[in-house]
Amino acid sequence: MSNLTVSRQDVLRVVFATIDEINETQPEEQKLSKLPETYLFGQQGRFDSLGLVNFIVLLEQSIADEFGAAITLADEKALSREKSPFLTVESLTDYILEQLEGLKQ
Amino acid sequence: MTDRQVMIITGTRKGIGRFLAEHYAQHGFDVVGCSRTPSDLQLPGYQHYCLEVADEAAVKQMFLDVSRNFGRVDVLLNNAGIASMNHFLLTPLATAQRLVNTNFLGTFLFCREAAKLMRRHRSGRIVNFTTVATPLDLEGEAIYAATKAAVESLTRVLARELAAFNVTVNAVGPTPVKTDLTRSVPQEKLDALIARQAIQRYGELRDILNVVDFFIRPASDFITAQVIYLGGVR
Fold it and tell me: Which residues of chain A make contact with B60, given a CB cutoff of 8 A?
């Protein structure tokens, strides 16, 4: 992993692929839009808590498969932030990039 | 990728874990084992990792490898454990932390990472290891018994949280078995412990295997959140 450079576009592609996977099991009206501004969690979010757990676990696995990096998204840093990284696709993408950067150090 | 069932067993260098690894590798499973120090166990269908079970990065890397090599985990046996017999008043903090790390946090980490892969196939079996020292409230085993009480509680809660993914979580509580773990315990203590069992004998490896076999067989998909103690201890 340490030599691999992952771009924001790469991460977004994995997040969107995970959304595709989740959408396969969702009824039409509950499908998530593949947009950076899509809300995932919170008042305007599409997931309940178990839905978010499913999504995060699936995403961790996709990141491991795609980039060979074993990261934990729901870590203490994420859970203690004033603004949750799980709020939108964009904030989650930023957080994943941050975690991947952290692995290089 | 494999069509064979994949089993992960912690603490396979010796004792119960080694016996279970040998048994299941010879009975159709791909077994991935681990221990802190290298193992001389070499069998077809067996792979070994050297790691501390409470080292998150090492455990995650091991599961990443398992996911790449096998694509699945069907069974997890959280066997790794350490004991330390000491009066509570004379127990160093470092000893307590070591027991919590290996017995509880190691079990937690392996459950978490295994369940993520089991979730993918919507099936799995987790068997945690507890001890009769917990229900018997054994003097001299305060920290050991407490870490295993934590494992039992974890087992029951995980059984509920993972039920939606068809993953069962149970625990087996062996009586003393003649292994390295009991070698340092004074004979009179072991005799007194065995006297409190309904069936008063040492546990055998086959007794543990029998309970594990029961928990992991396909027909046990309605058995979860259970702790089975051997020897008639409650």
Answer: 70, 72
Distance CA B104, CA B95 (A): 14
Q: Cα separation of A62 and A50, whole Å?
A: 18
Query: Mind telling me how many Å the CA of B221 is from chain A's nearest CA?
Result: 22
Catalytic residues of B: 144
Phi then psi for residue B133, to 5 deg, are: -60, -25
Is the per-residue pLDDT at A1 higher than 90?
A: no
Inter-chain residue contact B119 with A60, CB threshold 8 Å = no
CA distance B28 to B5: 7
Q: DSSP H helical segments within A48-104, as ranges?
A: 49-67, 76-80, 89-104
First to last CA, chain A: 11
Contact (CB<8Å) B119/A57: yes
| Closest CA in chain B for residue A65 | B68
Q: The pTM is what? A: 0.90
| ipTM of the complex as predicted | 0.75
Structure token pair of residue B63 = 């599961």
